[in-house]
Write a structure and sequence with these properties.
Number of helices: 21
Bound molecules: adenosine-5'-triphosphate
Subcellular location: Cell membrane
Number of strands: 15
CATH topology of the largest domain: ABC transporter transmembrane region fold
Strand content: 5-15%
Low-confidence stretches: 308-365, 602-660
Mean pLDDT: 77
InterPro entries: AAA+_ATPase (IPR003593), ABC1_TM_dom (IPR011527), ABC1_TM_sf (IPR036640), ABC_transporter-like_ATP-bd (IPR003439), P-loop_NTPase (IPR027417), Type_1_exporter (IPR039421)
Structural class: alpha/beta
GO molecular function, one term: ABC-type transporter activity
Membrane topology: Multi-pass membrane protein
Largest sheet: 6 strands, mixed
Radius of gyration: 37 Å
Keywords: ATP-binding, Membrane, Nucleotide-binding, Transmembrane, Transmembrane helix
Shape: elongated
Strand order of the largest sheet: 6-9-10-3-11-12
Length: 660
Amino acid sequence: MRGSGVHRRGLRFVRRRWRVVVRLVLWSALETAQAFLLGYALARALDDGFLAGRTDVGLGWLGAGAGAVLVGAYGTGRVYAGVAGLVEPLRDRLVRGVVERGVREADGGALSGFTQQVEIARDTFAGLVLVSRSFVFTAAGALIGLFSLAPPLLLVVAPPLAAGVALFAAALRPLARRQERFLVADEALAAHLDTVCPGLRDITAGGAEERIATATDARVDAEFRAARSLARWSVLRVASLAIGGQFPIVLLLATAPWLLDHGVTPGALVGALAYVTQSLLPALQNLVHGLGASGSRLAVVLRRLAPPEEGGETKAAAPEVPGGTEKAASEAPGDTVKAASEELGGTKATGPEDRHGSKATAPSSATPDALTLTSLTFAYGPTSAPVIEDLTVRVAQGTHLAVVGPSGIGKSTLTAVVAGLLDPRHGTVHLCGHPVPGDTARAHRVLIPQEAYVFRGSLAENVGDLRPKPIPERELRAAADAVGLTALMERLGGPEAEVDPGALSAGERQLIALTRAYLSYAPVVLLDEATCHLDAEAEERAERAFVERPGTTLVVVAHRVGSARRADRVLVMDGRRVAYGHHDDLLERSPLYRELVLGTREPAGQQPLQPALPLRDTDGVDSVAGAGLAGDGRHVVAHGPVGQVQAPGDLRHRRTLGGQ
Ligand SMILES: Nc1ncnc2c1ncn2[C@@H]1O[C@H](COP(=O)(O)OP(=O)(O)OP(=O)(O)O)[C@@H](O)[C@H]1O
């Protein structure tokens, strides 16, 4: 449908310029004369001149052939001028359309991209006009020449030539479709890599490697399949060239005795070979390569540039991405930037501007929980042991939750699953009642990883990165005050100061990322050791800012004991077991938590602890965290106190690894 729209417009365009077309035809006729004389003069030079012992006549015919080349070259020069008369109006027309569209959509980036495509369209169109015109007129000259030399020559050359051209014509459409698919897949991959490559560090920091790798794989696969399919069909192009251009040479040589017996002179035979090798073969070669590659490129570009016609679309076909799920579709080229930016640390939610103005009301039964994990099991590979197994938990809105546990136990994994960056093997995750993964859930959370994402640009741009519009200065300064960014902001020269990420300390970068999260509209804030480079006081201030931020549920992968002590609830991850409750409550009933906080683990008789990262207390004294199996193999059932968050049994860990 879209293709026929472009064709219709193309025909209209050419019809309106019929005078230019007639001029082109007239100048191209000189090329026909040149093609005709090339073989004819050679044949006459041999038959009437050199073979008849009349060298002067032979030289005379050769001179005539050379003269024809000069005349033909002049004609070709005029043809180029004529082609400009056809191509430049096309370019002007496309540029007009593109500028109107750019102004209408106020999109400078799109405008420069489209202008570049206009230049491609113009060059490709010029090339197409030249090669297809050249083939028609050269073939006409050569065929007339063959007929005038001796009609049997036409019998030998014309059928394979016609068969080759017919094969090419039949393959043209499928070939163009495959070429187009390949181009689109190639561009999709390039656009994807263009977004992903500059953000590799942040992808790693955000724990999104697997997701990005899967998306990249899909695009590489799509391009590979498109290239393979194109290569298969390209064989037909080569075959048409062999049949139409090279086979006639073999036929002329093989049938030479028969031709000579049927009145064809040696000169005519040489002339026929000259027609085929010097005119027909090169013209066919140009046509096959020119139309095959440039034709489909032109079709793609014109389709993108053309304004919609009768509600028709103007976008090129989307590349095939394996496993065409909804998710894959949302990761199509146009979505790449958005998806990547969200994976790198947050969400551009589009909530009401005055979101911070309304204090959250106490949760009621009608208010969905901020976070609900139901029988959640996650493993990194299909055969790997689960990192999280059968975890069920509900966290009410407005809760400050600290997640603690030894290094490598799965805290970051849990936040990544909650953020929708990793897909669970079993079970479900809901954020504010919305299923994860999903666009709505994504709009409800912001995840700040340990390695803060800061880019070159103004401080205001950096902290406002998750907001759809620039942030009023008063609001920005208030956020900076709350999180503890003010001193850095003043030192840098205010909100409009340029930020050089390399010149900032890791802690300073974290302050910027934290302020960005604070200013986002996301009600659920996930801090995965996002304050680890701050001192205890700065960490406390930043956490307090989120706790006091209206309507916020804060989930902190705790780096220090103080962080857990301040939280409403603590989730202790301990491999096969989890514990959940208040700090004081857990000190009594969770040996691991006691060890994490106090450095002692009771009762005796447990298996040796595995080494783990220190969990520092607020006073800077390190206590060693460890993970081990309880000697009795019991699993912990959390008894969260009633209130905002939990009732007994809200958090359950029903099965244990290894069936204990
Ligand atoms: N991309 C991955 N592929 C395979 N295994 C992974 C991957 N990322 C993490 N793991 C493994 O999953 C387990 C949990 O890792 P995770 O990073 O979630 O732990 P953590 O508790 O956050 O650790 P830390 O406190 O050191 O950051 C570890 O055994 C880790 O080796």
